[in-house]
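sanity check this record:

:::
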Amino acid sequence: MGQIEKKQATNLMEAVHSGVGLAGWHGGMGDSFRTNNMYQFMVGGQFVCHPGGFVDYKVNIIKNNDPITANINDFQLRSEQYYMHVDPNNEVLVTTTFEGHHPISFKGENTYECSWVKNFVMPVVWKKMWGKGRVFYCSIGHDLDALHVPEVNTMIKRGMLWASL
């Protein structure tokens, strides 16, 4: 959630636009530089919240013919289930579906049941182009436990490789 100076943001976006790949996961990429809309546009999304904190949820591979997700099956995970604002231009590879019964609290003051997100399908892993540059993002990865899940580890490695080509 840090800040990025205008010159730094411009240099990053121009580098990716020229063909440099960009890959990342969780808040390190999806919750960074909240005041820079162009950064969010390049990444393809922005973290909003994770109802319930750490919850059990299913991760669905929707494009199993992609090099990033090939030979990976759906799996269960206990982690933060990211609710994000996402670019409809992303090529979504992996999703999750919200159950809608996990509460969310805003600074500990009010708690809300999130029934309005019940059955909502949220992108988890996507890729996109930014000019000539490849951008890869995975919302999973809050802690080392999540990164040790073989499916997550494989997708992140393959996504970084894809972005670097």
Summary: The chain is about 25% helix and 35% strand. The two ends are 28 Å apart (CA to CA). Residues 6-164 form a domain with the Rossmann fold fold (CATH 3.40.50.880). The chain has one domain: 6-164.
